[in-house]
Amino acid sequence: MAELPRRLRPGDTVAVVASSGPVDPARLERGEDVLKGLGLDVIVGSRVLGREGFLAGPDSARVVDLQAAWCDPAVSAVICARGGYGATRLLEPLDWDAMRAAGPKILLGSSDITALHLAFAKEMGVATLFGPMPACALLGDPEGPEPETLDHLRGALFEGERAAPVHGDRVLLPGRAEGPLGGGNLSLLAALCGTPYGFRADGHIVLLEDVGEQPYRIDRMLTQLLQAGSLDGAAGFALGSWVGCGDPGQVLDVLTERLAPLAVPIIAGLPIGHGSPQFSVWMEADGVIDTQSCSLTGLFRDPEGAP
């Protein structure tokens, strides 16, 4: 199991950075207020509102913000403002020696941030949090944050709290599985296949989710991962949201056809990924799939031993 960072306490400082796509200033401001409402001191990277085409500024600027935040001893968590595209471009230029020397802390993000989750696990052996981001709709909406999303984030993020189990809506293959949670956004897993940061299941419960990908593309990406051996040794599968991915029944048929031959427990319909609500889960921390309750339960324990 990866090293577990200390979870947050009220008054901790968190840094918001833009590792991927351009950030909407108004939405970011609202999301920042949500984090402050949780009792956190928030600093925003100096380059968060940069823009270069479909990126939040040049790679060099995004690397500087991310690395400076991680290496700042006053910062307890680094929170990615949004996903989009671009995190994969940062993996080579990051100074991993400097990042390792800074010690473990929390990384929070999802979608394109899957690339950072995989790289942080490989290079630093630290557990990271897959969850909502401040410049995205569920936290930065003008009507306020989505309540279930915020409550579950609080439970996952803060010391002494415990996030509720995440329940799906159907069982594709029965059974019980335990292991560290891995995977993330399917498109990013496929994009990193064959790179030094590619995912290997090897005893993991594998989270899969995506947005805006038609069933044939989901089939193609799963086939790529299967043929590359990336899913060999999976303990089980936790399937999240597939927003905008065409006919839900066809998506489920594709997932079942490609994954059921692996003969491990599979649950589907978990509110993790791009849907609403969006629950938070710790990557590389131990979890349990129980198909009797159609649930994924995280077993994160604070380093001090508190539940």
Automatic annotation (TrEMBL):
* InterPro entries per UniProt: Carboxypeptidase_A_C_sf, Class_I_gatase-like, LdcA_N, Peptidase_S66_N, Peptidase_S66C, S66_fam
Q: Does the keyword Ribonucleoprotein apply?
A: no
Residues annotated as domain LD-carboxypeptidase N-terminal:
14-131
* Entry keyword annotation includes Protease: yes
Pfam families the UniProt entry points to: Peptidase_S66, Peptidase_S66C
In terms of superkingdom, the source organism counts as: Bacteria
Q: Which residues form the signal peptide?
A: none
**What keyword terms does UniProt attach to this protein?**
Carboxypeptidase, Hydrolase, Protease, Serine protease
Limits of the LD-carboxypeptidase C-terminal domain: 178-285
Q: Family assignment?
A: Belongs to the peptidase S66 family.
- By what name is this protein known? LD-carboxypeptidase
